[in-house]
Amino acid sequence: MLDGHLAALTIESLAVEGALVVRLCRGAKVTVRRLRVANAGWAFEELAEGEAAPEQLAIRGYKLVKHAQRELVFDAPGEYVVDE
Questions:
Q1: How far is CA 4 from CA 13, 29, 75, in A?
Q2: Residue 25 reports pLDDT greater than 90
Q3: Which residues sit opposite 48 in a β-bridge?
Q4: For the chain, which residues make up each domain, given as ranges?
Q5: pLDDT of 5 strictly over 80
Q6: Distance (Å, rounded) from C-alpha 57 to C-alpha 22?
Q7: Among the residues of the chain, which ranges form H helices?
């Protein structure tokens, strides 16, 4: 998931098996030079019959379950490089 001022995000090399969340504030310039992410990620799971759920989920018939994620949060202006 990408969130924020994304025009200031440059991705050169990225491999994701799972879930990655990147958040940028205005004024943050981020270059992902190299990053590998592996985790359990997010999954869509069917609602069990009779399972209590808000109407919007009941209509869809599934819910999003977040097992694990990697978060990169850049909440201060500046230039950042991710190289892992």
A1: 20, 11, 10
A2: yes
A3: none
A4: 2-83
A5: no
A6: 26
A7: 55-60
